Amino acid sequence: xxxxxxxxxxxxxxxxxxxxxxxxxxxxxxxxxxxxxxxxxxxxxxxxxxxxxxxxxxxxxxxxxxxxxxxxxxxxxxxxxxxxxxxxxxxxxxxxxxxxxxxxxxxxxxxxxxxxxxxxxxxxxxxxxxxxxxxxxxxxxxxxxxxxxxxxxxxxxxxxxxxxxxxxxxxxxxxxxxxxxxxxxxxxxxxxxxxxxxxxxxxxxxxxxxxxxxxxxxxxxxxxxxxxxxxxxxxxxxxxxxxxxxxxxxxxxxxxxxxxxxxxxxxxxxxxxxxxxxxxxxxxxxxxxxxxxxxxxxxxxxxxxxxxxxxxxxxxxxxxxxxxxxxxxxxxxxxxxxxxxxxxxxxxxxxxxxxxxxxxxxxxxxxxxxxxxxxxxxxxxxxxxxxxxxxxxxxxxxxxxxxxxxxxxxxxxxxxxxxxxxxxxxxxxxxxxxxxxxxxxxxxxxxxxxxxxxxxxxxxxxxxxxxxxxxxxxxxxxxxxxxxxxxxxxxxxxxxxxxxxxxxxxxxxxxxxxxxxxxxxxxxxxxxxxxxxxxxxxxxxxxxxxxxxxxxx
Amino acid sequence: xxxxxxxxxxxxxxxxxxxxxxxxxxxxxxxxxxxxxxxxxxxxxxxxxxxxxxxxxxxxxxxxxxxxxxxxxxxxxxxxxxxxxxxxxxxxxxxxxxxxxxxxxxxxx
Amino acid sequence: xxxxxxxxxxxxxxxxxxxxxxxxxxxxxxxxxxxxxxxxxxxxxxxxxxxxxxxxxxxxxxxxxxxxxxxxxxxxxxxxxxxxxxxxxxxxxxxxxxxxxxxxxxxxxxxxxxxxxxxxxxxxxxxxxxxxxxxxxxxxxxxxxxxxxxxxxxxxxxxxxxxxxxxxxxxxxxxx
Lengths: 553, 109, 176
Ligand code: SF4
Hints:
A: Sulfite Reductase Hemoprotein, domain 1, 4 domains, 5-stranded antiparallel β-sheet, C: alpha/beta, binds iron/sulfur cluster
């Protein structure tokens, strides 16, 4: 993975000192709260219901064991022994004191981490496929480009006061696990006509109050022209994005107002002009960055480790885990392992310091020291030898981290909601817990197959409810929590916004309602290979909506 | 009646206006204020920007529990998240009076 | 043109005393001034007259006004005043960068309006070389902004060498 050199290190140190100075000025009374607030927001520090919340950037979701250990240390020393992994592949600490933040940033800087640009109207921390560099269906590792974007977007001279926040996601695989069509800019790296790498560029997707699937704005953008093109797109947005209305200031509103064709023509004109103005980005720099993402020293192994297969045959529990929590690797004899942070009754995405430390140890032992954070609020060990899977599973099991539900109905995304979040209308986490408890039987859940439930506590959609096969949005109805249900959303290469069904339900009715929908699906599916989302698309949502709102089928 | 609440500048924790110059971490110690005096009290409280940030008024019933719209949010602020007992404030087992039929560690089932 | 509580600083953070520029309302006479600043609207309406006079000419651009309309005349315009009516409105950054990198404008680009120390670092990089600053302690604020970062990642109008240019590159492994 990428390692800081003296330049990266210096910049993070200088930013830390700058923020420490801002905190000191606030504590001494030199800065008022009104002056301080935008400054702390530029460094990921929010004031939530119970305390300050610090959001730490995990660029494109990649961590090593030393970094994960440092996060555990922060949780122990300055928080209440846990952290929360988010849909932005970041981690949030919920119980932070203002005066501790400079020291926390120092601890982070010691392991090449920071909280820069995790909030505010700037280009946010870039996200990527969590199986990047590992997935069997990958054309090219997107991480060097993600790192290039990280550097380019850091303290950008032109784009640090945008109309609104700006999120970029990148994937290099045929199956989209980074939800690129639901970002301000989504980048899909693929082979061009002559085999050289090109990007399909989607612009203007997003969730929130006005959800859109991002249209394809530029196909076959030569990969080495990426930064110029991004600069052109950001310039069009910076100049023409709306600034008069907070709710209309995202780039998706500009793209939909102009129409994809006109927007694309404007970006293209700017791009062509820029190409003659600025020196192209030196290819040596991409080569330098790419160097850090060279494949780890894999062994040459047979594709199907016979002992691994034998162990699966012997242990039903291990086999159960392998069916859901493994992902095919590009290197024969290896697999990527999902550590679902979704124990039944737990808080989606929460991870205790002890768990982080256990995972760090296992990453060092079994996965070339690498850990990934997924936007589905799980962790991944990307490169595990099949021959090591059993030992890894046993260790995960002992640590309570082997819940075999990755991708199943209890693998739920939930934002912090009203239990923590100052903006929330309703709680998300208890709803996720109640649904997971309803589907706690793992064999039954496996028989149901892939269902993605996503829950947000308000219209900001941090819990991606628009993109859930079943999406749940918390609303406030005269002081009572109600939940709007959406059906049919998806975040993959066939991205779609779910359709709102009927009126909201009170929280206690949600598990029954979901169960009725699932029963209806089980009754209607062609066979066990037809996933929930496939059945929904084949049949339309009417039968499911009926089940949802009209009691037992 | 009204009370004034804010977040502590230092810790970010919810605090409650307990009368001239005093803030308390306990909702039960919040001073109940006659609505007619609320705005001027809020101004007084907001002036203490070195202790408290984001001060605002909350409507409460006679015995001091927040009502209606604010009830759930204020209960969660006062007693901690409803979903895990560990990070709650002292006495996490206490059932917030204003949380209708839900105790802090129960899911909405 | 600086407001009473504002101070005008040059690109080195020095306070400029005796600002020669006079901002004119759209109907104010130009006579008797050495250096005048007019709105874009007035410039476009009176272009030929304004360019033929012997005062130095500046044009003020509001956030919604790009520099494109000035392109043919930039050689005869001495200064562009880019307005930042509110702190968070960053359109002026694009204006300055386009002026410097697309039109190679070499006159003064002045940031006017709601300018605080926290924008200075970005303004300097985007190509501004004069600032109406509202911080009380102007010089300290400028120094703070200037000294904050010694490393930048992007090439920009301040010509600071980006990190990639300062790095000793390992031998290139060929293209992509
Ligand atoms: S969706 Fe709303 S409630 Fe949930 S974390 Fe985002 S802002 Fe908070």
